[in-house]
Write a structure and sequence with these properties.
Layout: H1 2-6, H2 18-46, H3 51-73, E1 88-90, H4 95-104, H5 107-126, H6 128-131, H7 137-159, H8 171-190, H9 193-197, H10 199-213, H11 220-224, H12 242-271, H13 277-297, E2 302-304, H14 306-315, H15 320-335, H16 337-343, H17 348-373, H18 377-394, H19 405-411, H20 415-431
Antiparallel strand pairs: 1-2
Helix pairs in contact: 2-3, 2-4, 2-10, 2-15, 3-13, 3-15, 4-5, 5-12, 5-13, 7-12, 7-17, 7-18, 7-20, 8-10, 8-17, 10-17, 12-14, 12-20, 14-17, 15-16, 18-20
């Protein structure tokens, strides 16, 4: 009976009730909100912005995340967007280089580079069908697996209270995180119907209540937040300098491959198929056009959100109205600071306890994609060498200290970037070699002497 009631949630275009959609849509917002807000705060600090400008960047990031997700669900002109259930938000892959640009140049240089780099991504999306051969399952699977690995420390840091927190690693944080994790685990494996599908939200509600009892919830942001504030185009201006443009464009290209991996993970994990050329092309073009718009309004570059991809894979709930509701909530939260401030009261320990299982699902989806490509000696070599290089460099502090700082920023700050580059190069070198066909051995003939 539960499956009959919720069956439409597993169909992209099916009509479903608000009661069915609401818990899943809110769940996606709750899972994504910290990831959307935090990068804006980090960039604002690096660029030495004041409170008002920081709030404006947070608002714009929320609005752009909502619009970017809507574009993916409902493509513009049927071309800009993937028509796949993928949540978009501030791109973590871009954050390290944004911090460098903001510190060495200024906030205007970030948005100038973003405007140019986004056009490159639109072009990449337009011509994707001609270069898609560069991204077979063995490459995208390796990227997805590295994304999962890179998110594990994020989940643990959240469980401990959030990096930089004065109470990082405290027993209170771990109690809340473990209670949240256990609640999510219970609903995910022992509940049925909507209770199982909304396991993340249910667990976070329970964790939030425990955090509230332990005095870990701060309502001061809600008290000080206003009720309405519009975003302003070109408030931060835009400056165009060659170094920020080239650097951010390179990161955008690598992040595009990561996005291909995330979209592939969604279709493979939740729809049991590979994405089409049109879907991936539209995904990149939609992402590029929103980043172009974000450059004018002061929004952090958008990317796919791994935790939400994991939610879609875990629940198999792909109905477009689920993330459609999430998008509307994000846009409204961006326009009404009171709402976004309520979301900001969720402790990091709650988010970490809820998302650790989601991140594990992403990693396992990567393994599943790799296995689908076949565990040949060449394929295992591509995966192993790519992960060894990318993760090894990222986990070894100062191993690139002899190079310019931008080299460390791009290649040493994220497991995903170097792993992606290595997977692409190794796949081209090893899987695209001309193979000499062995000549068939001729059968020996016997001559008859007459």
């Amino acid at each position: 009976m539960d499956n009959k009631k919720t069956g439409g949630l597993f169909d992209y275009d099916a009509k479903v009730s608000f009661g069915e959609v609401a818990p899943l849509g809110i769940q996606h917002v709750v899972a994504a909100i910290a990831g959307i807000i935090t990068p804006g705060i980090m960039v604002a600090k690096a660029a030495h912005l004041g409170t008002h400008d920081t709030t404006l960047i947070i608002q714009t990031s929320l609005i752009m995340a909502g619009i970017a997700t809507l574009v993916q669900l409902f493509p513009i002109f049927g071309r800009f967007g993937s028509r796949l259930p993928v949540m978009m938000g501030a791109s973590f892959a871009c954050i390290p280089i944004l911090l460098v640009i903001g510190g060495q140049f200024n906030i205007a240089s970030i948005f100038g580079a973003q405007i140019i780099g986004s056009l490159v991504i639109v072009l990449m999306g337009f011509f994707l069908k001609y270069i898609r051969a560069l991204f077979p399952p063995i490459v995208t699977g390796t990227v997805i697996l590295s994304i999962g690995f890179s998110l594990f420390p994020v989940a643990v840091a959240y469980m401990a209270g959030g990096t930089g927190s004065a109470h990082f690693g405290s027993p209170k944080n771990w109690i809340v995180a473990i209670v949240t994790f256990v609640a999510v685990f219970y609903f995910n494996y022992f509940a049925k119907g909507l209770l199982r599908l909304s396991s993340i939200l249910n667990g976070m509600v329970i964790g939030y209540i425990v955090a509230l009892v332990l005095g870990m919830v701060d309502f001061n942001p809600v008290k000080s937040a206003g009720f309405f504030q519009a975003i302003v185009p070109m408030h931060f201006h835009a400056e165009f300098h060659i170094v920020p443009i080239l650097t951010l464009t390179i990161v955008f290209l690598v992040d595009a491959v990561q996005s291909i991996g995330q979209f592939t993970a969604t279709t493979v994990g939740a729809m049991d198929r590979q994405p089409t050329d049109k879907e991936l092309s539209g995904a990149l073009m939609g992402k590029g056009i929103i980043n172009f718009l974000g450059g004018f309004f002061g929004g952090i570059p958008v990317g796919t959100f791994g935790q939400n991809v994991g939610l879609v894979i875990d629940t198999k709930a792909i109905n477009k109205r689920i993330l459609g509701l999430s998008s509307i909530i994000l846009v409204v939260a961006g326009v009404v600071p009171k709402i976004s401030s309520i979301l900001q009261t969720i402790p990091y320990a709650v988010i970490g306890g809820a998302t650790v299982s989601v991140f594990s699902i992403i990693a396992m989806t990567g393994i599943r994609t790799i296995v689908s490509a076949g565990l040949t000696p060449i394929n295992t070599g591509i995966v192993g060498l790519s992960l060894a290089t990318g993760i090894g460099v990222a986990l070894t502090p100062n191993c690139l200290s002899g190079f310019p700082s931008w080299v460390t920023t791009i290649f040493g700050s994220s497991e995903v970037i170097l792993t992606t580059i290595m997977a692409l190069v190794l796949n081209i070198v090893l899987n695209h070699r001309p193979v000499k066909k062995e000549k068939p051995i001729k059968q020996a003939t016997t001559q008859h002497i007459s």
